[in-house]
Amino acid sequence: MAYTAKDYGKLLGMEGLSETLLKNHFTLYQGYVTNTNKLVDTLSQMLKEGKAGTPEYAELKRRFGWEFNGMRLHEYYFENLGGKGVLDKNGKLAKKIAEVFGSSEDWEKDFKGVGSMRGIGWVVLYQDNVSGKLFNCWINEHDAGHLAGCTPILILDVFEHAFMIDYGLKKADYIAAFFKNIDWKAAEGRLK
Hints:
Elements: H1 19-48, H2 55-79, H3 92-101, H4 104-115, E1 122-128, E2 134-139, E3 150-157, H5 164-167, H6 171-180, H7 184-189
Antiparallel strand pairs: 1-2, 1-3
Helix pairs in contact: 1-2
């Protein structure tokens, strides 16, 4: 079964994210889907040919995490956009955030603080599937730093491609625009 790039054209017209920025971002995402499919096919063929364990196979296996997570993180990111950015204070996610962080305002300060860190990567609000606790985490590369056994609840892309066309080096302005467009129902739907 091949992965198919999803159509996120409904996001065009969001406040604070230009059509040019979004279309470029969609194209980048489509590349992750294409490369994930190529690696699945290549690795499958190499396995059939008895090449498992070769240096070439090992390097492609390592690359697979980068491409797959690049695909999936972008899907989570795009799917938690397109809303009006208002967290339902009576919803289960808001209650969980307040329980863990003290208030949604304190959580937001922490999330934005993580997003404002120097460097490229992702900000992920994770839920630990064992304890139920929430964590805001920095993911530097697609394939490293994820919390094992945790579910991504809210994803913010802070690689330069996500904001520089519109905001240059003003990452905080991009993060503010992101917050205006969060689809909190999508995020809440990921909560266990």
